[in-house]
Amino acid sequence: MLKAIETLSRYSLVIVMLLLPIVIAGAVLVRSGSARISEWLPKNQLDRITYDSFIEMFGDDRFVLVSWEGCSTDDQRLNSISDELRQLDSNHTAAWFFNITSTRTLIEHLTNDPLKLTEATAKRRIEGFMLGRDGTACLVIELTPTGITNGTDAIECIYQAAEVGSGLQRGQMRLVGPVFEEAAIDRAGNDSMRYLVPPSTLAAILVAVFALGRWRASLVVFLLAGLGQIMSVALVYYVGAELSAVMIVLPTLVFMLSLSSCVHLVNYYDEIADGEQHRGARAVLMGLKPTMLATATTMAGMGSLVVSDLGPVKAFGLYSAISLGMSTLALLLLFPQLTAIILREQKRSERISTNGITYRDTFLESLTSIVTKHAGKITLVAILCLGICIWGTLRLQASTKFDKMFPAASPAVTGMNWVESKIGPIVSVEVLLTFPEGNQDLLQQVRWLSTIESQLRQSDDVGATLSAAKFLPAISRARGARGTLERAAYAGQLNKALYGLTEQKWLAQDQSDRNVWRITCKVTALDEDYGIFVERLRQDALSSISEFRSEPFPPEKVEITGVSVMAYNSQLQLTSDLSRSFTMAFLLITPMMMFVTRSVSGGLIAMMPNVLPVLIVFGLMGLTQIKVDIAGILTASVALGIAVDDTLHFVSWYRRGQSTGLGARDSIRFAYRHCAMAMIETTLICCSAMLPLLFAGFIPTARFAALMVCMLLLAIVGDLLVLPALLVVRDRWTTPAISTTTQT
Question: Whose CB among 139, 323, 531, 711 lies 3.0–4.6 Å from 232's, allowing a Cys bridge?
Answer without folding.
Answer: 323
